[in-house]
Amino acid sequence: MTTKIFHMELYPLKFKPILKERIWGGNKLNTILGKEKTKSVVGESWELSGVDGDQSVVANGFLKGNTLEEIIEIYMGELVGDAIYENYGTTFPLLFKFIDATDVLSIQVHPDDTLAMERHQAFGKTEMWYILEAEPESEIIVGFKETTNAEAYTKHLNESKLVQLLNIEKAQSGDVFYIPAGRVHAIGKGILLAEIQQTSDTTYRIYDWDRVDAKGKARDLHTEWALDAINYHCEAPYKTAYTSRVNDAVNLVDCDFFTTNLIELTQSIENNYTMLDSFVVLMCVEGSVFIKMSNGTEEKLSKGETVLIPSVAELVQLIAITPSKLIEVYMK
Fold it and tell me: Residue 131 needs a FRET pair 20 to 30 A away by CA distance; which of 47, 178, 189, 317 works?
């Protein structure tokens, strides 16, 4: 049961994580990121979601217990930004996750907005990954080694040799991979990462390593649907190059759907969001910080936690409690 919302001043909002059981999941979301321990194998923690049926619920302050959609309905542009509210209404446009891959994920691709709207009446899915931890042999599959075509792709897929065409990257902590719609990809085993994506749960599974579940059943593949969703061009390099700077924001990804920066903190900094007509989401991937808005509201953010800064925030102070790293995300 939700509480009645009175139009009071907004503050840094935390949400209750939505934990997702996955065949390839593990226990790092609990042991490393402090998520609730469950009996099932958890692969994903949906930190902030406006997906139908998986609406995030506020976990702190006077809005506690209300869904993301409910508070957008009340606060509109004050929460998400005027232009964003005009374009998306009460649908929150981005989805934030932490992912723990104990085993390799399926090779997959996502449709773009045009194809997804035509087939599923949904948004497409462009996303990015920031790797928190990776085991020594961990790898990421992303894109093609060389430009190919649907015919060669289909031949290799049918012969279970698709990997021969794909680009494989060694993965390590701090790596960033941008995955626009149409780019074939898979997260390798032994990887813990943060994912920022469009609000969409539309995935075309291409190959699942011939896995079966406890009942001996294989997961569905979307072979035909994937064919015209795939970008067959080689677009290397696939790993995003960046140079971190302490106590400053460094851009990682700047695309039509989101802008993502890395903020490495050892002290206090002040961010001026006055001219930004957007919410800001901060995901803490290392350490802990205090977040103080200019209206006097504040919140502590620790590793594995995510906070939504409302669009009305102007000056926001980030104070490092310990050396910290934050992923900062907004829309232009």
Answer: 317
* Strands 166-170 and 139-144, sheet pairing: antiparallel
The third-level CATH classification (topology) of the domain covering 18-227 is: Jelly Rolls (2.60.120)
pTM above 0.90, yes or no: yes
Q: How many CB atoms lie within 10 A of CB 94?
A: 23
- 7 falls in which pLDDT band (50, 70, 90)? low
Residue 2 pLDDT grade (very low, low, confident, very high; cuts 50, 70, 90): very low
- pLDDT > 70? residue 5: no
> 279, 324 in Cβ contact below 8 A?
no
Q: Is 158 exposed, middle or buried, given 0-12, 13-18 or 19+ CB atoms closer than 10 A?
A: exposed
Overall residue count recorded for the chain in this entry: 332
CATH 2.60.120.10 assigned to domain 249-330? The reply is: yes
Contacts of 52 (CB under 8 A, 6+ apart): none
Which residue in 142, 104, 169 sits closest to 230, CA to CA? 142
Distances, alpha carbon 188 to alpha carbons 138, 147, 247, 289, in Å: 6, 22, 31, 30
Q: Dihedrals φ, ψ of 110, to 5°?
A: -115, 140
User: Could you tell me the residue ranges of all domains in the chain?
Assistant: 18-227, 249-330
**Residue carrying the six token digits 């509201």:** 297
Q: Which of 22, 119, 183, 205 is catalytic?
A: 205
- Look up 205 and say whether it is catalytic: yes
In the prediction, which pLDDT does 210 show?
84
Q: Quick check: do 18-227 and 249-330 share a fold? A: yes
